[in-house]
């Protein structure tokens, strides 16, 4: 049994914990790394004190314990131990669990004797520890310690209340920061935008609102990527979106469930994979899906963001698109997306709650990805696709990239820029270009089917089916 990286990502309380865990994956910090044959791993990690922290984990159910004083669960030491086991790059010596691991197992389930060693030094406790793990994984009917369960539940509620209070304090500071920016004038904001944003980003991180911190962190780059005449309007829109999120979060109890859930995710609350799969209200869609975009970007928090955009190939009224989002620490080495544009998978997706469902996870995939075949022509031409885009943005005005799909389009040059327009060139969207002008070869090609991502100002073209064949941005 081996712990998967995705399980570790789902367990992590926030992205900062993953980044901190990545820094602990050094042999010099771990005087002890060991495991047994029954799915137990443990280790000692040297911290700031004289004695190392003792960390232990059961692979059977991902139960864990660490002796560090961290208030995050699991802590960075636990995540690092699991991660090193998942990587398989550092040796874990095989031996009987020490007493402190056996004692932990005994406390997890009543009736399990503490570990002991027999007179010959053989791991008699190892058998007891292994039996405890197997029993814990298989015997679901065994009673749980009610006092321990009550303490754990109380601790979770206390931590949740403390985080809610911290977030509300961070929102107060964000509102003041926005007001100061407007009072000082937008013209004076951008020259010092990086420094201005850095301060409030750190405050939002401390307030346990990492999602909101990420939006502020990206603000200078997003605004500067716009044409110069559009930058004042772009700055106002982004400040307005931040204010809207702040107001919505304070009034979340009065919002419909999908909007409330979406706002909490935007601010930084996470929904684990297990929780989403257990949610009976979560939208499930089983179909064939084509990968229309695969993106890998390094964020300022040293995490690599992997986005996989899927287009549903079947008929029906279910959402046409979905995006899978994963985060991998940069320190883990170069990571690539598991899929490429044009791949086709047959899978059931589970969508996170939202007024406009888009982000999802793969609940179950049938078989491996295949390739081949044309991306089906979108039902909407450019004018109807723009109207649909406006509806999506109205339902979720704080959204980042929104999917855009149109048929019978063409890329044209106008006003010194590239535009995606309809055949008659009566309506269109400005296209994001890069230093390599990768989109330029599409200019003048008629009757193309386009998938792209609209950020509110520019369209990033990712995939096109043209009379000359398929074009992709990667």
Tell me the number of helical segments per DSSP (H or I, 4 or more residues long): 13
Succession of helices and strands: HHEEEEHEHHHHHHHHHEEEEEHEEEEEE
How many angstroms separate the termini?
36 Å
Overall structural domain count: 4
Report the portion of residues in β strands: 15-25%
Q: Write down the Rg.
A: 26 Å
* Main sheet characteristics: 6 strands, antiparallel
Helix proportion range: 25-40%
* Number of E strands: 16
If strands are numbered along the chain, what order do they take across the biggest sheet? 13-12-11-14-15-16
Which parts are unreliable, with pLDDT below 50 for 5 consecutive residues or more?
Answer: 109-143
Oligomer: single chain
Write down the overall mean pLDDT. 84
Coarse shape: globular
Look at the helices and sheets and give the structural class.
Answer: alpha+beta
Descriptive account of the structure:
The chain folds into four domains: 5-138, no CATH class; 148-264, no CATH class; 274-370, OB fold (Dihydrolipoamide Acetyltransferase, E2P), CATH 2.40.50; 382-472, Beta Barrel (OB fold (Dihydrolipoamide Acetyltransferase, E2P)). 37% of the residues lie in helices and 24% in strands. It contains 13 helices and 16 strands. The chain is globular, with a radius of gyration of 26 Å. It has helices at 5-11, 15-23, 76-87, 99-108, 124-138, 146-184, 186-189, 193-206, 210-224, 231-250, 257-267, 273-278, 382-395, and strands at 32-35, 40-45, 53-58, 63-66, 93-94, 284-298, 303-312, 321-329, 344-351, 360-370, 402-414, 417-422, 428-430, 448-454, 459-466, 469-472. The chain has a six-stranded antiparallel beta sheet with strand order 13-12-11-14-15-16, with helices on one face. Strands 4-3-2-1-5 form a five-stranded mixed beta sheet, with helices on one face. With 474 residues, the protein is an alpha+beta fold.
């Amino acid at each position: 049994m081996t712990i998967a990286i995705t399980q570790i990502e789902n367990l992590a309380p926030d992205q900062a914990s993953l980044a901190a865990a990545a820094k602990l994956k050094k042999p010099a910090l771990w005087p002890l790394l060991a495991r047994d044959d029954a799915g137990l791993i443990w280790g000692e990690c040297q911290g700031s004190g004289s004695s190392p922290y003792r960390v232990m984990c059961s692979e059977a159910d991902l139960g864990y314990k660490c002796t560090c004083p961290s208030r995050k669960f699991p802590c960075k030491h636990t995540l690092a131990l699991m991660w090193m086991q998942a990587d398989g790059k550092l040796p874990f010596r095989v031996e009987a669990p020490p007493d402190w691991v056996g004692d932990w197992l005994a406390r997890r389930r009543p009736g399990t004797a503490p570990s002991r060693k027999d007179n010959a030094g053989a791991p008699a406790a190892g058998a007891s520890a292994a039996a405890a793990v197997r029993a814990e994984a298989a015997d679901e009917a065994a009673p749980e310690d009610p006092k321990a369960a009550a303490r754990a539940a109380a601790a979770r509620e206390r931590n949740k209340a403390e985080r809610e209070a911290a977030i509300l304090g961070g929102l107060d500071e964000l509102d003041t920061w926005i007001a100061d920016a407007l009072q000082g004038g937008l013209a004076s904001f951008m020259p010092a935008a990086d420094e201005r944003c850095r301060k409030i980003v750190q405050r939002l991180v401390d307030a346990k609102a990492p999602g909101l911190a990420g939006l502020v962190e990206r603000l200078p780059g997003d605004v500067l990527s716009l044409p110069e005449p559009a930058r004042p309007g772009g700055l106002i829109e982004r400040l307005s979106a931040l204010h809207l999120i702040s107001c919505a979060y304070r009034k979340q109890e009065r919002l419909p469930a999908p909007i409330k859930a979406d706002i909490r995710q935007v601010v930084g609350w996470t929904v684990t994979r297990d929780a989403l799969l257990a949610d009976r209200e979560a939208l499930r869609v089983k179909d064939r899906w084509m990968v229309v975009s695969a993106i890998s970007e390094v964020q300022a928090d040293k995490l690599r963001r992997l986005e996989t955009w899927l287009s549903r190939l079947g008929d029906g009224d279910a959402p046409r698109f979905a995006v899978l989002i994963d985060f991998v620490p940069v320190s883990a080495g170069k990571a690539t997306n598991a899929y490429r544009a044009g791949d086709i998978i047959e899978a059931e997706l589970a969508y996170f709650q939202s007024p406009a469902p888009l982000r999802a996870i793969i609940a179950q995939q049938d078989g491996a990805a295949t390739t081949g075949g044309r991306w089906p022509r979108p039902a909407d031409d450019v004018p109807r696709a723009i109207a649909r885009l406006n509806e999506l943005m109205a339902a979720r005005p704080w959204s980042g990239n929104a999917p855009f799909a149109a048929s019978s389009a063409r890329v044209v040059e106008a006003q010194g820029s590239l535009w995606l327009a309809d055949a008659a060139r009566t309506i269109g969207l400005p296209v994001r270009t890069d230093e390599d002008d990768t989109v330029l070869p599409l200019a003048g090609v008629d009757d193309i089917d386009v998938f792209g991502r609209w950020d509110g100002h520019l369209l990033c073209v990712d995939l096109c089916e043209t009379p000359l064949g398929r074009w992709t941005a990667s």
